[in-house]
Amino acid sequence: MNRLFAALPLPEDLAARIAGTQGGIDGARWVPPENMHITLRFIGEASGADTDDIVDALHDLQAPPFPVTVSGAGRFGTGERTRAMRMGVDRTAEIVALHTKIDQALIRIGHAPEGRKYTPHVTAVRFSGRVGQRRGGPPNTRVLHWLEAHSGFFAVPFEAREFILYESLLGRYGPVYAPVAEFPLGLPA
After folding, report:
1. What is the mean pLDDT of the chain?
2. What is the Cβ-side half-sphere exposure of residue 139, based on CA atoms within 13 angstroms?
């Protein structure tokens, strides 16, 4: 089985800038720059035949290239527990439309709808257990300091010219994201 997701790749210089924000929180699992991306749709487990169907369905999508702006910092979690920290991505009509087209293509071939509001972002760090929270209390002070220090993060917009279907491969030092298929954005030839 393949664990799949569709995402926009980041320019290397932007991934390096985000990686430059990482550090200062013991026990955090910082995302390496080569794994940074903007998820368009998490797909999950798929067999080889299902993966082929997914690739075929995504090849039929048409969307123009569009600008993407990464700015600000935030967190994901419930209550006082932080599961991950991220850089924000402007939720433009173009990125939402591409997400919706991918979701609809997957629904047509039998996948369930995503089921939660789409929030474009770049994950910078993940936490396990209570690393992102003081025992029984509010979020770790270092988490709060990181969020405050990077709330003003801003990158010059880049143009999204393709999206990629990735497979998440679990390795000894964490996941590695391997491209399965690339889908250029633009008008058909």
Report:
1. 90
2. 22
Average pLDDT over residues 146-151: 93
State pLDDT tens for residues 4-61. Answer: 999 999 999 999 999 999 988 877 889 999 999 999 999 999 988 899 999 999 998 9
Label each residue of the chain as H, E or C. Answer: CEEEEEEEECCHHHHHHHHCCCCCCCCCEECCHHHCEEEEEEEEEECHHHHHHHHHHHHCCCCCCEEECEEEEEEEEECCEEEEEEEEECCCHHHHHHHHHHHHHHHHCCCCCCCCCCCCEEEEEECCCCCCECCCCCECHHHHHHHHHHCCCECCCEEECEEEEEEEEEECCEEEEEEEEEEECCCCC
Q: Using CA atoms, how far apart are residues 84 and 76, in angstroms rounded to an integer?
A: 5
Residue ranges of domains in the chain, CATH in brackets: 2-184 (3.90.1140.10)
Q: Which strands make up the sheet holding 37-46, listed edge to edge? A: 37-46, 2-9, 162-171, 174-184
Strands 174-184 and 162-171 turn out to be: antiparallel
pTM summary value: 0.90
